[in-house]
Amino acid sequence: MHCPFCRHEDTRVIDSRTADDGSAIRRRRQCPECGRRFSTLETSSLSVVKRSGVVEPFSREKVVSGVRKACQGRPVSDDDLALLAQQVEEAVRASGAAQIDSQEVGLAILGPLRELDEVAYLRFASVYSAFSSLEDFEAAIRTLREAEAARAQGASATVGDDQGAGTGPVR
Description:
The chain is an alpha+beta fold. It has 5 helices and 6 strands, in the order βββββααβααα. The strands form 2 sheets. It has a 3-stranded antiparallel sheet with strand order 1-2-3, with no helix packed on it. The chain has a 3-stranded mixed sheet with strand order 5-4-6. The longest helix has 29 residues, at 134-162. The chain is elongated and about 70 Å long. It starts with 11 loop residues before the first strand and ends in a 9-residue tail after the last helix. This is Transcriptional repressor NrdR. Residues 46-136 form the ATP-cone domain. Residues 152-171 are annotated as: Disordered.
């Protein structure tokens, strides 16, 4: 790292801290030549390859704006959308790739959006997956209902397992 003041070729790190929810590192540096201190912010780059072949940096704001349209009129707050965008970015970064297809970003949005609001999920999925008929909607709704039934059945099994706990004799 070059010193921004005297352009000396080397600097030493005095302190390092995470920043921006752990997605960046802020380093405090000092130049051994002029003795001045400065800070740097290091982030890993993540690029999205669009269908047209254009490559652009990943943007949480674009995720939020795309999902906001699907959430219009739904009880979803800006904080909910910001958290969803963070979850999407974490999922995309977990792949370890420096470039990712926009298709994969869309897939990463579907899971958290489904948990956030099922109506918004259906709206987003209908555009993203290019639903072309009522059958496409019916299949998506059937999948949502099956998942809800499985969740409800899992919850009732857990409650049933705990009912007999602690009723035996104490020794």
